[in-house]
Amino acid sequence: MSRVQDAALRARALKVIPNGMYGHESVRMLPASFPQFFSKAEGAYIWDADGNRYLDFMCAYGPSLLGYRDERVEAAARAQAELGDTLTGPSPLMVDLAETMVSMVEHADWAMFCKNGTDATTMAMSSARAQTGKRIVLVAKGAYHGAAPWCTPIPAGTVAEDRAHVRTYAYNDVASLEAAVSDAGDDLAAIFASPFRHDAFIDQEAPEPAYARRARELCDQTGAMLIVDEVRAGFRLARGSSWSELGVQPDLSAWGKCFANGHPISALLGSDRCRDGAGAIYATGSFWLSAVPMAAAIETLRIIRESDYIEHTVALGERLRVGLDAAANKHGFTLRQTGPVQMPQIMFADDPDFRVGYGWAEEMLARGIYMHPWHNMFLCAAMTEADIDATLAAADAAFAAVAARRATLEPHPILVMLAAAQAEHG
């Protein structure tokens, strides 16, 4: 595959963008052959700047739920764009969208809109503190809740005071959660939780009902707010709240990524238990209430309610998981496939430094399949059985190629550097 245009863009970017790229879409921690820049997308596929096409299992890190440029969603967006987008005040669509989300999410009595997941999680934290008059917020160790100073995984440029009242507990560990709540004393504002444990570099983990219920009980006992961060998993696991099947309803939930099928919008939903707190904070942005993403969201939510997109992606995910296990075993590999099948995490057993996983991801990319070696992935509704079968055929060849050069595989240099730094600092 040609990389001429991508290489040229990287060289230009280095001159005008710090490090040439930043954030979660930087490929500095991916195999060297992974492209940084993309030119277009359609359905389940993306094209890089050199015109190479890939079946995309990252779905833009989650926003593509129905498939890129779904015509139904794009038609709604175009119709609103002809009327206006970012205006002096919000479009009437803001009320329509709030009513729609409140009707779909069981615990929600109200909605507020913003642009990114970090906006929504930060608003949730601020609302909880405003409602309770307390300071301490509990988050699961290793959980990702955004890139603000209070939660960023890379703390360069932050100060200790940014996290002075953020404390951790172990996800799914009731005793750890209880101890953290006890340590917070009478200053606990909120407990954050993800719908399931989807941290990078590790096997994914479904929530234990006892953990979810205990989190709810502890919030009820202390007056704290229970916050479920739905940004990554929202509407991929359920057509409403992800924890509803556990019988647990949060007070607040943060949403983003896919509910407008790629158009930029996120949301904070909440119950009346935290209405006053949400109403007391000052949260705003020049583009937060733009109308085009709201039109896209309303149409996406209609499709979510009326189509079988979840059932379709689950069926495809099960087909993929079974087929990958069979292909891996054929070539002497054992996979660790975890997480919901529609949000798969695929790693290799006996691969502590990820050299095999990196090698396999690179071989898959060379065969037109974009998969990630250490981040959870996503299936979209535009994928077909033929796409999954093509993936399995590519995987069979990729396993064979990795087996042939397994002795020469080396760990990624960035991972080596990070591991050394972690060891140095304990």
Polypeptide structure, described:
With 426 residues, this protein is an alpha/beta fold. The chain contains twelve helices and 13 strands. The chain has helices at 4-16, 71-81, 93-104, 117-132, 174-184, 209-222, 275-280, 291-306, 309-330, 355-366, 385-404, 413-424; strands spanning 38-42, 45-48, 53-56, 110-114, 136-140, 166-169, 188-193, 225-229, 252-255, 266-270, 335-338, 345-348, 369-370.
How are the SSEs ordered, and which strands pair?
Blueprint: H1 4-16, E1 38-42, E2 45-48, E3 53-56, H2 71-81, H3 93-104, E4 110-114, H4 117-132, E5 136-140, E6 166-169, H5 174-184, E7 188-193, H6 209-222, E8 225-229, E9 252-255, E10 266-270, H7 275-280, H8 291-306, H9 309-330, E11 335-338, E12 345-348, H10 355-366, E13 369-370, H11 385-404, H12 413-424
Helix pairs in contact: 2-8, 3-8, 5-6, 9-11, 10-11
Features:
globular; seven-stranded mixed sheet
What would a concise description of this structure say?
This protein has 426 residues and is of the alpha/beta class.
